[in-house]
Amino acid sequence: MKDFYLIYKNLTRKKMRLFLTTFAIFIAFLIFGAIMSLRSALNAGVEMSADNRLVVVHKTSFTNPLPYAYVNKVKAIEGVKDVTHANWFGGYYKEPRNQVVSFAVDPQSYMTVYPELVVEPEQLSRWYKNQTGILVGERIAIANNWKVGDRIPLSSNIFSQKTGGQTWEFEIDGIFKGNEEKIDTSYVLIHYKYFNETQSWGGDSIGWLILTTLDASLNEQVAKVIDSEFANSNNETDTSTEQAFNKAFIDQIGNIGLIIFGVVFMAFFTILIVVGNTMVLAIRERTNEIAVLKTLGFASSRIFKMVLVESCLLAFLGGLLGIGGAFIIIKGASEQMARFLPNLVLGSDVLLQALAYMLVLGLITGIAPAISALRLNIVTAFSRG
Amino acid sequence: MTSENLFELNNVAKRFTKGKETISIFEDLNMHIKTGDFMAIMGPSGSGKTTLLNLLGGVDQPTTGEITFDGQRIDNLSESQLAKWRANNIGFIFQFYNLMPMLNAAKNVELPLLLTNLSSSQRKAQVETALKLVGLSDRAKHMPSEMSGGQQQRVAIARAIVSDPKFLLCDEPTGDLDRQTADEILEMLQLLNKEFGKTIVMVTHDPSAAKFATHTVHLNKGKFVKAEELLL
Predict the structure, then answer these.
(1) How far apart are CA B203 and CA A291, in angstroms?
(2) Percent of all residues in chain B with a pLDDT value above 90, rounded to a whole number
(3) Strand runs (DSSP E) across chain A, as ranges?
(4) Are B144 and B105 in contact (CB under 8 A)?
(5) CA-based angle A198:A204:A207, to the nearest 5?
(6) Which end of chain B is less crowded, N or C, counting CB atoms within 10 A of the terminal residue's CB?
(7) Which residue from B83, B96, B159 is facing A294, i.e. has the nearest CB?
């Protein structure tokens, strides 16, 4: 601790240099925090996928419907545990800009296949019995200030009612949460039966099937059997694990991983050069002072540590400010983008990664000047000065 | 003042290798410095004054020979042992003061005490005493850039004596100062020698400065010579 004052004074001796270097690191970690949070949000669906859950979609496109009859056929396949299905409703609340992700599902089987969705038992049983009932996710309920018992109109931008109009009236029977924070709860579930009976187009068809296998080791085998079962029919299927399905969905907007890696790498590499160069120059300027400290009796190892701590402090100063900035940006963006990116948060995983990178940045940029300080020969340093 | 030898150099040689050439600074140099001495070392440039000072200060090692300080050999100590030895026994005063520009006078003086186990309040008390001794109590919070050359050198002296070392090494301590300020600094060194019993070795080019010492030795081409020989 006695050396901390010296380290602090060295760090702050040139205010403008400190500001510019800190700012460079700040920008790097701002980008890192924001982009990694975005990636985490995009990958949340992939990360939270169950190991033994498969998704069956139309082979041509997942937007093409499948016959309802497939549900029972898939159920009969060996190795399949539970089967459910879902339809995209294309909902919005009051105005088209208030998009509400809505699925028409078979309530009992859906909740069996998705055990991570947690609902109060009485709310769940009420929803099971009430065909015009709706189960809403906690996040979207909060965003729209919905409560259990509320009656809400949901319109579809795809389907219309047999009686005319595109708006359905629903009663909120329950609010579901996830058993983990990252579980998406920004959508609503309506009864497939009600939807199917009241809509005017494409009856008795489903959007996709979701099933669980008896064991994850059976996934590949079950997927093959399902696809071969419907091969050469009008509605051929493409079965994949939920994880692969979600990843493929994300990959449609580009190789996010590669883009993010590229941006973060470039930012870091640039900052590394800038900070490394600054540290080398800063230590070079102090050659005489380091020689004086050594003459007074400061051990080389102690000076080595002081230089390394200084570069780490610089990295943490800029880095923490950057992550703080990213946190504020992500918090603001998550409120605006709750419907599209429900899991957009700067989570502890990103924070821990950032802290690790700050340490790495500090060590890498500090090691060369620290070694040169360690090796500095007093006689040579004074003869140079 | 006692007459015991504080420093003894026995058959000390110092050689440097430059490419294929070996340059000898000293060969078989013998000298002793008694406790309580105030010795001035004079000699032309390249005579080996600074190298001798480096050997006495433990910042350089002899190629061969023995150096003992207070009965303890220091020529065979490791770098870290020498660092500790310097911290415990030597106070350094440089020509260009060598103060840390980002620290105020008090913090500069405190530097050697960071190597001790003294508490913050004990360090503060010792710093105050050292600054008082050099007459700069009122300048404790001043930065080096806010002080004159003479004041900076007095801060450097305070830094050299704050941990109460037995031995002070001064490398041209007045080389950067005007005559009047130089004399003030030299009087201060004299005081430290006479009143506080500090053994002092001072390298200087200036005969007027050497007069403040109790005796002067002359170095030429790595050998001690008489003053008259130096003039020849």
Answers:
(1) 19
(2) 72
(3) 53-58, 66-67, 80-88, 91-92, 99-105, 117-118, 133-137, 151-156, 167-178, 187-191, 205-206, 208-213, 237-241
(4) yes
(5) 100
(6) C
(7) B83
Q: Show the beta-strand stretches assigned E in A203-320.
A: 205-206, 208-213, 237-241
pLDDT (average), residues A329-354: 82
Asked if A9 and B103 come within 8 Å (Cβ–Cβ), the reply is yes
ipTM of the complex: 0.90
pLDDT of residue A165: 87
B143 touches chain A (CB under 8 A): no
Task: Note whether B37 and B215 are within 8 A (CB).
Answer: yes
Nearest of B184, B230, B228, B231 to residue B209 by alpha carbon = B184
Would an 8 Å CB–CB cutoff place B45 in contact with chain A? no
Would you mind telling me the total number of residues written for chain A in this entry?
Answer: 385
Q: What residues does each domain of chain A span?
A: 2-45+254-384, 60-235
CA contacts within 13 A on the Cβ side of A22: 16
Q: Which residue has the tokens 């965003």?
A: A143
Give residue-wise pLDDT tens across range A60-86.
988 889 999 999 999 999 999 999 999
* A227-237 core/surface letters (b: 16 or more CB in 10 A; e: else): bebbeeeeebb
* Cα end-to-end distance, chain B, whole Å: 35
Q: Is B6:B33 a contact under the CB 8 Å cutoff?
A: yes
pTM: 0.72
The residue-averaged pLDDT of B157-179 equals 92
Handedness of CA A141, A144, A147, A149 (dihedral sign): negative
Which one-letter DSSP state was computed for residue B111?
A: G
Query: Taking the C-alpha atoms of A74, A75, A80 and A81 in order, what is their torsion angle to the nearest 10 degrees?
Result: 150
Distances (CA, A) of B171 to B55, B79, B200: 13, 22, 11
Q: Does pLDDT of A304 surpass 90?
A: yes
Side-chain-side CA neighbours of B125 within 13 Å: the count stands at 5
Across the interface, whether the CB atoms of A296 and B87 are under 8 A apart is answered yes
